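Retro notes (design track)

What went well: tokenization of the new backbones is finally stable.
What didn't: we kept losing track of which sequence belonged to which structure.
Fix going forward: every design gets posted as structure first, then sequence, in one message. First example under the new rule, 432 residues:
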């Protein structure tokens, strides 16, 4: 198979939809030699922030001299972004080779989903790359996510709990916390970030039942910042000072705190890191699509916020921008998936922006600009439309002054389309 036909085959597996459960994954991994047992694991879940936290953990471990596998989802432009070793994406020929090997063990009784197949490919690549540790981001939920076949991680983290993917995880934060808490393993330390009291109590109960030590942001560890954005991490056994974070936004301080707490929790397992690795890893970490600047004069920022909790975080960033730049306007380029809470997402952003340009990603689930309009009944500012994402960016640029800010948000798929076009490689294919 050519590389393009391999990717087409993988995307075609989306016909199986999302099937939460571990039986298929266990059978599949057993048939390819259980590669997930060849390396140690740090497992990270949560509604928002888990990708940034995973990137920070991987960066620090790399600077500590470890060989690190990083598995994340979704990708923005290229499938290979999901599977990296020491920052390098899996090579195209290796994707083709691994897909062929996994397909060879499939029988009529086994129909893996796209995410199950992708997870198996990651585990095989990590095992063959002889990594020291894999940093795994949960795909959806936790309890029945394909990554949860890992039986004894070094430590786990649950960054936040919020309402998202309710059709799979439940309609309350307590129900979602129960699903995400499924990655908590017996006697394995768990780090939790900021969340509501009900969700916190669910995770505490699970941790107690599993005899898992639980460290909570704000109680057991924290990151404090000065007005010069020099950070200090104060943990259970460690204090790391004079830190800076390579990811923009004060909300990343919470993600940094969770990342460093996760690393601190593994210090007795041979994964100890020193302050130099912490400083260098946190300072140099990058994560595409998280308040990522892709243009200047006017400043153009991409942010992957796609649910109400993330919109509140983005709103805080935009408010800070307005305080620092009181004469600047903010133009929002907004596209979103049809199955997301559009009203809940846009509400906290409306007081922050001057104009809105509606658009849609090249994805079947994208809300149309007409559907987005229905969420703007309380908005009385200018609303423009451009179905093609790059046309929407062009409209926003035409309306902006050099000192203004253009923020593109609402969907990672939208961000992927914009980044692909900016890089000159055309629009990205359907992503899972």
């Amino acid at each position: 198979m050519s590389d393009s036909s391999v990717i087409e085959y993988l995307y075609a597996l989306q016909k199986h939809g999302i099937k939460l459960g571990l039986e298929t994954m266990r059978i599949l991994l057993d048939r390819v030699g259980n590669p997930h047992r060849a390396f140690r694991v740090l497992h990270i879940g949560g509604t928002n922030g888990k990708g940034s936290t995973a990137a920070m953990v991987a960066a620090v471990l790399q600077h500590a001299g470890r060989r690190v596998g990083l598995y994340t989802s979704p990708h923005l432009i290229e499938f290979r972004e999901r599977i990296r070793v020491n920052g390098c994406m899996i090579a195209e020929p290796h994707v083709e080779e691994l897909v062929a090997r996994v397909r060879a063990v499939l029988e009529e009784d086994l129909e893996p989903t796209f995410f199950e197949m992708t997870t198996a490919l990651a585990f095989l690549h990590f095992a063959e790359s002889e990594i020291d540790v894999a940093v795994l981001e949960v795909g959806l939920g936790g309890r029945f996510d394909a990554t949860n076949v890992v039986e004894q991680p070094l430590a786990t983290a649950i960054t936040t709990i919020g309402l998202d993917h309710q059709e799979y995880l439940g309609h309350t934060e307590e129900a979602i916390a129960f699903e995400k808490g499924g990655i908590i393993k017996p006697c394995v330390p768990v780090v939790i970030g900021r969340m509501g009291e009900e969700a916190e109590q669910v995770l505490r109960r699970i941790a107690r039942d599993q005899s898992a030590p639980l460290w909570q942001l704000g109680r057991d560890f924290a990151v404090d910042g000065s007005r010069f954005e020099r950070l200090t991490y104060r943990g259970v056994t460690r204090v790391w000072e004079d830190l800076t974070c390579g990811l923009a936004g004060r909300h990343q301080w919470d993600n940094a705190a969770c990342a460093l707490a996760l690393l601190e929790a593994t210090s007795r397992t041979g994964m100890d890191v020193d302050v130099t690795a912490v400083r260098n890893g946190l300072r140099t970490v990058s994560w595409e699509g998280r308040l990522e600047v892709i243009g200047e004069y006017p400043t153009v920022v991409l942010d992957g916020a796609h649910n109400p909790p993330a919109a509140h975080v983005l709103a805080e960033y935009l408010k800070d921008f307005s305080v620092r730049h009181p004469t600047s306007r903010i133009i929002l380029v907004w596209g979103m998936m049809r199955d997301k809470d559009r009203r809940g997402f846009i509400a906290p952003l409306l007081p922050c922006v001057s104009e809105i340009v509606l658009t849609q990603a090249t994805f079947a689930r994208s809300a149309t600009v007409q559907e987005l309009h229905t969420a703007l009944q309380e908005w009385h500012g200018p609303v423009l439309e451009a179905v093609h994402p790059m046309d929407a960016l062009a409209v926003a640029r035409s309306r902006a002054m050099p000192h203004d800010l253009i923020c593109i948000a609402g969907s990672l798929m939208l961000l992927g389309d914009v980044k692909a076009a900016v890089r000159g490689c055309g629009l990205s294919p359907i992503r899972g």
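Added context from the reviewer: The radius of gyration is 21 Å.
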